Batch of 4 targets.
Target 1
Amino acid sequence: MPAVPQNSACCSRRTMLSDLGMGFTGLALGALLADDGIAADNLSPAVAADTTHPPDGQPHHTARADSVIWIFLSGGYSHVETFDPKPALNKYAGLTFDKTPFENPVNSPLHRKRFRSVAAEEINVRDVYPVIYPMQVGWKPRGDSGIEMTDWWPHLAEQVDELCFVRNMWTTDNDHAAENQIHTGRHRLDEQQPSIGAWAHYGLGTLNENLPKFVVLGGPTRSDTRLSIDSLYLGPQYAGVPIALDPANPLPFGKRQPGQSLQQQQREYELIGRLNRLSAVEYPSDQKLLARIRAYELAFRMQAAVPSAIDFTHETQQTRQLYGLDQDNTKIAGERLLAARRLVEQGVRFVQVFPSPYGVWDSHQKLRDNHTRLCATVDLPVAGLIHDLRQRGLLDRTLVVFCTEFGRTPGLEQRSGGVDGRDHHPNGFTIWMAGAGLKRGFVHGATDELGYHALGAGHYVTDLHATTLHLLGLDNRRLHFPGRKRLEIDDGRVIHEVLA
């Protein structure tokens, strides 16, 4: 009988180590040491072969923020009726752009330079409606900083001196694939990139080994917006982990079966881990398999940590009211934002919050009714979050980002006989940030007098990404991945003007 070759999978050193293993605890320890950049030579063969793992998980420079709460309103809120009021819309209401004393924005070279429509340009009229539609709400200067905000944000207006507005954002997609673009930086016609949350996860070590680094609350809003939390070529282990705000069942994929004890489930996970590691010996480059190994190990630890993180029973009545948990119209957003505070408090790096369902801010018609109602659902909870972070001393180390996928047209949407709405508008819109490392009570950038174009160079969405990562201590241009070369626009540039 011929001798078995020394490199045979059945008796190789790799196979023996994988078969014997160190049990569930050993796998957990290996993953944690890998996250901390320690003892890389002693990792299991499968984990050691994971070429997607960052070198050390350490920041590139001194971080100003430990965590990010990224709040996204799906559908595109109107910038001119929220955070960038435009009196000229009222003064010239009913006139066409060419009847005002301003340059016709449709003829601006910025329009062709930045805008990219999937539909043929000759049939796309969605962002060029020429009849000016007046503002649907009042506005006034707020706080000591005197920043103008509309009357739909009475609670947030009380926090305006903590906020840092960027009023010259722009993007290129004029349809709702822009929901993915604001998170990935790529137009839907191009090869997609990992989301901003995935890059943060990829670049940094953990602050709490019992919780994911990247948590998602209320999303993704639909299957076709999965890209907004995806990690793509970084590997599935860096994607966002959606969590349900049900302490009894926050992780349906990890819930114990009826009658199953904790010890039985642990043995089940140990067996699954051993089987997965056996497979990993033969397929060391299978990123999905490596991610699955980590997922099972993390899922077991999360069963104790996650329910505690989202359990509000120990929050005071005052705190619950601060977030609007006692009111039907603010409860959903309030619960998600309170959970976000609790998660960053316990060391989660990046929490992506969808306080509203998919597309609800998309006010093609009845803008006044829609925005009046929708602003009331998030105004109190978001203001409560800023106040709560500040009073707990968390705002100095937490970055809050509040954004949407695009603004709304200065012109009246006239499709289908429209008389009271605005269409999608990627050419210029407003986001705001607050917290770690930022100027407070500050406005950077502007749109033109009609709110059409972001003036100057403006800021493409990846500038927001670069700024976020910079405050976390990461240089966006140094987050390289083997075999992948990103475009210049993918890296973006830090908005230094908003940094304290």
Target 2
Amino acid sequence: MTTAPSDAVRASAAEPTTFPLVLGLDTFGDVTNDDDNRPLSHAQTIRNLVEQGVLADQVGVDFFGIGEHHTDDYPLSAADVVLGAIAARTTRVRLGSAVTVLSSDDPVRVFQRYSTLNAVSGGRAEVILGRGSSIDSFPLFGYDLADYEQLFEEKAQLFAELLKGGPVTWEGKLRAPLHNQDVVPHTESGPFPAWIGVGGNPQSVIRAARYGYSLMLAIIRGSPARFAPFSQLFQQALQQLGQAPRPVGVHSPGHVAATDEQAREEFWPHYREAIRRVARTRGFAVPTKESFLYEIGPRGSLYVGSPETVAQKIAANLTVLGANRFEMKYGMGGLSHEALMTAIELYGTQVIPRVREILS
């Protein structure tokens, strides 16, 4: 599953769907720096994040997502609270997690928080569920990493039952059972969209199909084209299960500036430092300038450049992957709030229209 797809697979993955094109932004709430290059407080970072979400709504971004983390560099441990603040000041942008670490949370509470967000926002909530490639939440909430796989399997199954609405009866091994339990608040018009984020595990693709989720491909390194078989596997699994096709999305890091050179210069030192900090625990190689230039090139997974460069790359990879949705994880720890606001404005006013033009 990690090799480049064959021509047959590539053609199959690129078949058009009837799903609308969705172009969004994601953030992990990276701590940003002030004008003197000093890290801002967690509180100011979160307040700035609300302003970024409001701007995303104003400039035409379709979706704004916040990923759950629990570290000093990424203090967004309660994304739904921040999303609620953004919802109160916006009217159109869809809002959700990117991702919620379901393995170390309670599915009932996740459902309640996002059904509440759905009510507050007038039906604009979504949730992307993940197993937790960053495992900081496991010891924090008292979960055993030995149960890593079973935790997500059971909780993804329970969450799928909760999305159906009505009283829930469910039983697993790692959580107390539910017996005809009503879970509130009820949604007004059916379930809110729910996705499973997949970073390279084909079993997660099958799980998403089996339990009724859409598929979000988290592509953060290497050639995006190697993920084309996952899109094909997902749609094949749905067909075998007798289910209709469902959307496929892509999440990847990036940064937009006025020119390619400016985007590279702004992004590179912060990207290198961010990867260096997590390299030991995540098994990543510390990037070199050469590897960085490959990743921002046409075959890499970083979307860094001018609006035209980023738009062309998004459109090309959506086609290869048979996807209808792209979410750029914007920014990187250390970038200023002003640089992030400029990137969001360029993404909404120039990148999104250009991608739609290319794919129309």
Target 3
Amino acid sequence: MSKQDSFSEMLDEVRVFHEKHQFSQTGGEDMAYRVALMAEELGEISACVTKGKPTEMLAEECADLMILLLGNAISKDFDLNQAFWGKMEKISKRNSRMIDGRIRVSNFEGSDEANQ
């Protein structure tokens, strides 16, 4: 498959998938159900990493999670692209810390952002 990679094209493709399978009429857009599906996909991603599965399998599981995330935006009618860029702007201003030998960029307690 050689489609151009654009956010709007991916979103449209997931929207068509939702419509084809009538997600809005059959419970496929219920957020509790979708959270359970995302947890399942995270488990599959974890299994790929912890069991040393090939990168191709990890990529496929990550794609499953991305499809679910795009579907969340469709289900709850929000602009995920805008949310992404807004969040990137926010986290780009954060400081990082080393915690247990690994880098962490978070909203640390006591930081200016945490106090807003």
Target 4
Amino acid sequence: MRIGITCYPTYGGSGVVATELGIELAALGHEVHFISYSQPFRLNGREEGIFYHEVPVSNYPLFEFPPYDLALASRMAEVAEFYALDLLHVHYAIPHSVSALLARQMLAAQGRRLPFVTTLHGTDITLVGLDRSYLPITRHAIKESDGVTSISRYLKEKTMEDFKVDRTIEVIENFVNCDVYTPLKDEEARARARARLARPDEAILMHLSNFRPVKRVTDAVKVFAQVAREIPAQLVLVGDGPDRSAAEWLAHDLGIHGRIHFLGKQDRVNELLPLADVLLLPSELESFGLAALESMACKVPPVATRVGGVPELVDDGVTGLLYNVGDVDGMAQGVLSLLHDRARLEEMRCAARRTAQQRFCASLVVPHYVRYYEQVLGAAG
């Protein structure tokens, strides 16, 4: 198939999943065309079968805000026509599914069929889409999509309830390449890599996010502060965003700034995650929890909040530990209990990796998308 994919190309779960999906589809022999305002950050430009089409946006003085959604719709229609795309797959409802709807209508007027699939990722529904100014157009785009998928049962149910849609929504969970996100089997190599971040006697806690308020990165710092009072440890914060400054000041005020590594945005998190003992995910909401899955694949159990789709991924007490939002004390005690009981930690590490391999590997999930595309194309035909 020839598939057009549109996503937000910046750091964030929806962009990561869309890009990885494109890479996996190309590896299966499909032709993938990314259509966005910049190249997705996980693409290196050398993947066979993958093409990138930039969306030019006019800065004409009349427009206070550049009309990206209209420019995107025009580019989608152009690429679909020039490269004979079979369908579009848009990630994140706003504005991508609206743009795809316009592109489909433009081509229909020329007698050309272009079905599109919308994948709902989370904040496009739980935050942006529920804004009263966006709710009607989001609902319309969902209803008009030729196919709709969601990354968790939680998000499917929330979409149907909040947007009052009665159409079928297919749950296709997020995935991870289990050959890329993998533990370091060579313990000597792991020890050498860990030495860049911590002494041999120190535990490593890690947090990975876009540092937006919903991720509650300051809770990760508070949890670490309690852990660090009890045992030698270091905290590694991977990512960047609006709450980074708040996290830095909190670390400074708590006197633990020297034991925290602010690494900023990193392209190769698969090389960092295996170095951790535990992942901290204290989010206020996660529609799935991709960072938790990536850590589990690397044999690192997540200590996370019991929100959204996370309980569908993390089996509390088996593959990780779950707590209520804001329960900093509980999370800290949970981390300490694992670090004090290395046998239990190792058992949890193995269970986490096993779950990732058995349920969430790309080799299992991506064919589900392919079958869904075929179903949508059959229905549209």
